[in-house]
Structures are given as C-alpha cells and as structure tokens.
C-alpha cells in the first residue's frame, strides 16, 4: 500500500492502491472507536431534556419509564436490521446506500437530497442550539430567557469549530469523539450515582414511583408524541453504518459495537430517569425550564455548575458525531447473505409507520405539507442533473475550482 500525498492535517485519512488511481478511506476504526462513535452520537442533550416532554405526554412516571424501555428496544431492533444490512452491503452511507442498492437511483437521490439540504443541517443546528443554551445558562443566572443573538452566535461558533476540526483531520475528530464520549458516560454515571445517594440517605421522593401509573394518558396522539420526545435521545444509533468502510473487520465489529452500545445507553437512560424522579417530583419536572439544572441544584449544591457543563459537552460530542458520520454519507453519494427474521424488520416498519402517521392525523400542521412539497422538488433536480446528466459549463468550472481548493479527488469503494 502506498499512502496518498496529503497535508499534515489529513494524515491517516486515505490510502492509494499501487497501480490504482482511486483513493480509499483507511480502515483504522476498531471496536472501541466504533462504540465511542455510536454512544457519542446517541448521548446528547436529549436525556437531560426529553424526560420532561415524555412525562408531559404520558402523564405518569411509570408509563414514561415504559416508553424509555420500549424506545431502547426499538433502537435495538433497528440496529439488528442495520447490522444485517451492513454485512450484506459492506459499504458506507447507511440508509442511502441500502436504498440505492435495493430500490435504485431515484429513491436514493431523494434520500440524499433531503439528508443534505434539510435532515442533517437541521439536526446539527438543533444540537448546537442546545449546546449554546447550556453554555450560556451559568452567565445569565435567574433569567427566564437567554438573549437570542448570543444563543445563535455560540451555536454558529460550535458549528464552525466542528466543521474546521472535521475538515482538518479525521484523527483529531476521532480523538475529540473519544474524549466527549467518556465525558458523556461519566455525566450520566454522576446523575445515576446522585440518585442512589439521595435514596440511600432516605431523601428520595418515592411516592411518585409507588403510584407510578396514575393519570396515564391513553390517547394515541399523545403516546406517539411521547415516543418522538424519547426517540430523539436515541438518535444516532445508525451512525456506525454510515462509516462501514472505515471499520476494521466490519462484519464482526459492526454487530458487536451496536449490541454493546445500545443496551448500555438504554440502561443508563433508564437509571437516569429514575434518578430524576427520586430527586424531583413530577410537578417540579413539568414546571422547570431546565430539568437537569434543577436536579443539580438539589443534589450537587455548589457543584451544580457541573450539570450545564456536562450537557454542553454532551451536545458538543453528539454534534461532532453527526458531522463525522454525516460527511461519510455525502462522500458515498458523491462517489457513486443471510436474512434477519422477518419479525424484526416488520416490527420496525410498523413502528415507523405509526410514528409518522399518528401525529399528522392527531394534529395536522401545514409544516408537514411544506416538507412533502420540498421532497417533491427533488424530482426535477434528479431528472435534470442526475438522470439526463445536464452539466452547465459554469457549474463544471465551479466544481473544478472547489476540487482544487479542497484538495478533493475521485474515490473508490473500500468494501470487503
């Protein structure tokens, strides 16, 4: 193997086959890095904020805990489906690649069209705003709302910083990812440990757990919205499939990493929710603007500032994971076995259909129509620029100069 001639910042990113003009990403991601990417992408600000939303829609602590457990099960089932797909189609790109190989070019283009222009930018923007909110909270004590200008400046700074790190060096990105994941897990362990200490001292509010299912909502729309609130905290479980070509021994490490990470994160989420309920009453959880901060004020005292710091670092790590895995989907899109038991994909399909249709039928909003119309706008773009390959000379010139500026080159698959 001969390594490609690259700048210091891109060291270790790509390699070139002898006698081959194509570039490939190196397989330098082991099991620990795979676990770190998946956990780091999943554990963001959601677990510090979503329990309040789940409790609002479910109405009772017991039903809320059931929702968290079921969401963990759904994430595990989805991971099993993706693990099988990852072994059958050992290419990076995640769902984009699987749809491309299964249904063809047009559906795959619509996926990447929405992913690049709406899906991933919106995800990173939401996570960055959560990061900015918890960074600024200690500087504005007692304020009911933060200055919007400062909030957006800090969020934009977060996005620009992560963009620079991901563009400069994959090794630096991986190091940052490992550090953030360690911090995220430690933060949850502090919350779990704090709840255990409160319970051991006899100060735990166990009355809510004793009448755990009182006032449980049975409305389908409310239940689906509770699942949406909760599944936001599990978002990122599919990140590893987007970087399959960089995994060492991908057929084995892909399965092991998913089966280690998702049960671990689910267990930490469940214990963190129990800790919240032991420290804060349901009414306090519903009335507070920052649930995790209220928990920290009651448990950590003078060290309560560690909570917003932990949430900020968790959001930063989750945004970094979104940058890292999302860039690989765009990379694959630009480049262009045995089956699981039918009950697993069937369960995922039914759950997905319910979660999509139930909120729309319960609370129709014009925003749903706008999203659908934006998706339809991908059809003319596809047929004009992809199917008929219309390439104006001005776009070719812009592409050429961007390739020179970014030191980009055509790549090849690194599939097993």
Secondary structure tally: strands: 3
Strand content: under 5%
Pick out the low-confidence regions.
Answer: 1-13
Major sheet strand order: 1-2-3
In short:
By secondary structure, this protein is mostly helical. The protein contains 17 helices and 3 strands. The two termini are 16 Å apart.
Could you walk me through the main structural features you see in this protein, from its secondary elements to its overall organization?
The chain has a three-stranded antiparallel beta sheet with strand order 1-2-3, with no helix packed on it. A hairpin with a 6-residue loop joins strand 2 and strand 3. It has 17 helices and three strands. The protein has 416 residues and is an all-alpha fold. The chain is globular, with a radius of gyration of 23 Å. It starts with a strand and ends in a 10-residue tail after the last helix. The longest helix has 32 residues.
Secondary structure elements and pairings:
Layout: E1 2-3, E2 14-16, E3 23-25, H1 31-42, H2 46-58, H3 61-88, H4 95-103, H5 105-136, H6 148-168, H7 170-200, H8 207-210, H9 220-234, H10 250-279, H11 282-287, H12 291-299, H13 306-335, H14 343-362, H15 366-376, H16 378-387, H17 393-406
Helix pairs in contact: 1-7, 1-10, 1-13, 2-3, 2-9, 3-9, 3-10, 3-14, 4-5, 5-6, 5-13, 6-13, 7-10, 7-13, 9-14
Summarize this structure as a short list of keywords or feature phrases:
globular; 416 residues; 3-stranded antiparallel beta sheet
């Amino acid at each position: 193997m001969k390594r490609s001639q690259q700048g210091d910042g891109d060291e270790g990113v790509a390699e070139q086959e002898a006698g081959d003009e194509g570039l490939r990403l190196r397989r330098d991601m082991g099991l620990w890095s795979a676990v770190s990417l998946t956990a780091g992408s999943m554990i963001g600000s959601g677990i510090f904020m979503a329990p309040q939303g789940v409790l609002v829609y479910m109405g009772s602590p017991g039903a809320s805990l059931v929702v968290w457990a079921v969401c963990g099960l759904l994430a595990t089932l989805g991971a099993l489906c993706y693990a099988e797909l990852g072994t059958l189609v050992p290419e990076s790109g995640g769902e984009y690649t699987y749809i491309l190989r299964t249904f063809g070019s047009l559906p795959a283009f619509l996926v990447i069209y929405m992913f690049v222009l709406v899906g991933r930018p919106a995800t990173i923007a939401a996570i960055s705003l959560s990061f900015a909110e918890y960074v600024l909270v200690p500087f504005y004590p007692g304020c009911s709302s933060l200055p919007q200008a400062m909030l957006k400046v800090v969020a934009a700074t977060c996005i620009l910083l992560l963009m620079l790190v991901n563009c400069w060096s994959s090794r630096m990105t991986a190091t940052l990812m490992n550090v953030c994941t360690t911090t995220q897990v430690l933060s949850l362990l502090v919350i779990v440990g704090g709840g255990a200490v409160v319970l051991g001292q006899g100060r735990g509010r166990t009355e809510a757990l004793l009448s755990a299912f009182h006032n449980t909502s049975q409305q389908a729309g409310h239940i689906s919205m509770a699942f949406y609130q909760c599944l936001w905290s599990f978002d990122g479980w599919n990140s590893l499939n987007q970087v399959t070509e960089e995994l060492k021994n991908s057929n084995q490490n892909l399965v092991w990493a998913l089966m280690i990470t998702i049960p671990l994160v689910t267990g930490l989420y469940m214990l963190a929710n129990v800790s919240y309920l032991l420290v804060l009453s349901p009414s306090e959880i519903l009335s507070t603007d920052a649930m995790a901060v209220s928990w920290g004020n009651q448990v950590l005292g003078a060290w309560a500032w560690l909570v917003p710091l932990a949430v900020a670092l968790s959001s930063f790590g989750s945004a970094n994971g979104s940058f890292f895995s999302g860039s690989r989907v765009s990379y694959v899109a630009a480049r262009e076995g045995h089956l699981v038991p039918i009950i697993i994909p069937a369960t995922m399909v039914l759950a997905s259909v319910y979660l999509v249709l139930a909120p729309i039928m319960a609370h129709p909003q014009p925003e749903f129509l706008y999203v659908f119309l934006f998706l339809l706008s991908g059809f003319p773009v596809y047929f004009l620029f992809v199917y008929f390959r219309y390439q104006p000379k001005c776009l070719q010139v812009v592409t050429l100069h961007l390739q020179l500026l970014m030191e980009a080159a055509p790549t090849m698959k690194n599939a097993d």
